[in-house]
UniProtKB/TrEMBL annotation:
Keywords: Nucleus, RNA-binding. The keyword RNA-binding applies. GO terms for molecular function: RNA binding. InterPro entries: Nucleotide-bd_a/b_plait_sf, RBD_domain_sf, RRM_dom. GO terms for cellular component: nucleolus. Coiled coil: none annotated. It is found in: Nucleus, Nucleolus. Residues 33-110 form the RRM domain. This is RRM domain-containing protein. CDD domains: RRM_NIFK_like.
Length: 189
């Protein structure tokens, strides 16, 4: 490329940047590779994992779940830009001794269940917590009178069964039920 007197250095840089951007291929998540890592030693955090696994190829994302105190749970996921690189990394790093611990690395195919953690960061909340929130919303919603009577019948039936099981064992115990529970007209003894 020759520099004309009319073109400045800045325009040439912008032009070359534009060409690089056009030729750059963006890999879709289905073309990327994912590795599951377990037995991660303490002190081997996201940044260290990303730097260490970048020797195999470009690492696009690292996810290491933590508990409520913020401590690592001991496993995680590494996403590579190329699927073959993930396979090679899993083969070579499996049973690798690091900080007196054997690192276990498994390649996960694109259809793996754990892929959902890396699709977007907003959805990285564990599925159990999302299900718990949905369950709490369902339990706390206002119920119609027919739903409430159905639940009361179910609770009383459960208490009667529990009382019968305890009496078979020779334990005489009466349960106290909240007084604000509505009395049912058609309750069978």
């Amino acid at each position: 490329m020759y520099i004309n007197s009319h073109q400045s250095h800045e325009t040439l840089c912008q032009e070359s940047f534009r060409r690089k951007k056009e030729t750059k291929e963006v890999k879709s998540p289905s073309e990327r590779g994912l590795c599951y890592i377990s037995h991660i030693p303490h002190g081997f955090f996201e940044e260290e994992i990303k730097l260490y696994f970048s020797q195999f190829g470009k690492v696009t994302h690292v996810y290491i779940p933590k508990n409520r105190e913020g401590k690592m749970k001991g496993y995680g996921y590494v996403e590579f830009e190329v699927d073959k690189v993930a396979q090679i990394a899993a083969e070579s790093m499996n049973n690798y001794l690091m900080f007196k611990r054997l690192l276990k690395v498994k390649y996960i195919r694109n259809g793996g269940k754990k892929w959902r953690y890396l699709k977007n960061k907003e959805n990285s909340r564990p599925i159990a917590l999302r299900n718990r929130d949905q369950f709490v919303k369902e339990q706390n919603k206002t119920k119609s009178p027919s739903e409430e009577t159905r639940l009361v019948k179910k609770q009383r039936r459960s208490l009667r069964r529990l009382h019968a099981d305890l009496s078979k064992l020779g334990i005489d115990f009466e349960f106290q039920v909240d007084s604000d529970v509505p009395q049912l007209e058609t309750e069978s003894a």
